[in-house]
């Protein structure tokens, strides 16, 4: 699943023009191309570069991650796409989040790119299920905002999937995934008495 998502991301990058690559993504202050740089860095950044940026950032992981994404995004888009294909089968398994975290990173960041560009999400139901289970399973460190309210029930309208007890947040699997990761872009696609709580994240 991860390898295929990397290849699909490479195909997406190859289809974008310069204006689309410079478009602000849903991921903080990153452009579309910087999001791609982040995904490439996860599998292709030299260890020496990663360690250097970690030191320069004062060992603040999120800051180092942003610096690394920016550094990788300085490369031509075609090179980034080629690196995603070259490293599609990279077996690296990050601590804590493991393979479900990598798959979720690709799917969420894919939407960080596609939604601002008005492109269809083209997400696969079986992969969405893996990511939803991961996001509510207690291992999604760095994915789920710490201030996401507890005691909510999430239900998807296009998958037989639900989790939790309490005020309801209901919508497509993609919209629920984005809500769980703190993205506000899909809030209008959600329904239920728990949506106001999610909206405040």
UniProtKB/TrEMBL annotation:
<protein>
    <submittedName>
        <fullName>Uncharacterized protein (TIGR03083 family)</fullName>
    </submittedName>
</protein>
<dbReference type="GO" id="GO:0046872">
    <property type="term" value="F:metal ion binding"/>
</dbReference>
<dbReference type="InterPro" id="IPR034660">
    <property type="entry name" value="DinB/YfiT-like"/>
</dbReference>
<dbReference type="InterPro" id="IPR024344">
    <property type="entry name" value="MDMPI_metal-binding"/>
</dbReference>
<dbReference type="Pfam" id="PF11716">
    <property type="entry name" value="MDMPI_N"/>
</dbReference>
<dbReference type="InterPro" id="IPR017517">
    <property type="entry name" value="Maleyloyr_isom"/>
</dbReference>
<feature type="domain" description="Mycothiol-dependent maleylpyruvate isomerase metal-binding">
    <location>
        <begin position="3"/>
        <end position="89"/>
    </location>
</feature>
């Amino acid at each position: 699943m991860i390898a295929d998502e990397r290849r699909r991301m490479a195909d997406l990058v190859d289809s974008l023009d310069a204006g689309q690559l410079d478009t602000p993504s849903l991921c903080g202050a990153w452009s579309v191309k910087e999001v791609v740089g982040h995904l490439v860095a996860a599998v292709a950044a030299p260890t020496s570069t990663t360690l250097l940026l970690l030191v320069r950032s004062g060992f603040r992981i999120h800051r180092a991650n942003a610096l690394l994404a920016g550094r990788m995004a300085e490369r031509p888009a075609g090179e980034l796409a080629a690196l995603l294909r070259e490293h599609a089968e990279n077996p690296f398994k990050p601590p804590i989040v493991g393979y479900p975290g990598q798959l979720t990173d690709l799917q969420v960041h894919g939407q960080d790119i596609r939604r601002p560009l008005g492109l269809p999400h083209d997400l696969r139901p079986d992969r969405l299920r893996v990511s939803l289970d991961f996001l509510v399973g207690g291992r999604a460190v760095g994915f789920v905002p710490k201030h996401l309210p507890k005691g909510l029930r999430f239900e998807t309208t296009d998958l037989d999937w639900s989790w939790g007890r309490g005020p309801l947040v209901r919508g497509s699997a993609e919209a629920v995934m984005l809500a769980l990761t703190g993205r506000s872009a899909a809030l209008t696609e959600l329904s239920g008495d728990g949506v106001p709580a999610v909206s405040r994240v």
